[in-house]
Amino acid sequence: MQITFLGTSSGVPTRSRNVSSIALRLPQRAEIWLFDCGEGTQHQFLRSDLKISQISRIFVTHLHGDHIFGLMGLLASCGLAGNPKRIDIYGPSGLSEYLQGCVRYSQTHFSYPVKVHTIEPGIIFEDEEYQVVCGPLKHRVPAFGYRIIEKDKPGRFDVETAQKLGIPPGPIYAQLKQGQTVTLANGQIIRGKELCGEAQVGRKFVYCTDTVFCDGAVELAENADVLVHEATFSHQDAEMAFQRLHSTSTMAAQVALAAGVKQLIMTHFSPRYAPGNSIILEDLLTEARAIFPHTDMAYDFLTHTIPRRPSP
Question: Which residues are known to be catalytic?
Answer without folding.
Answer: 66
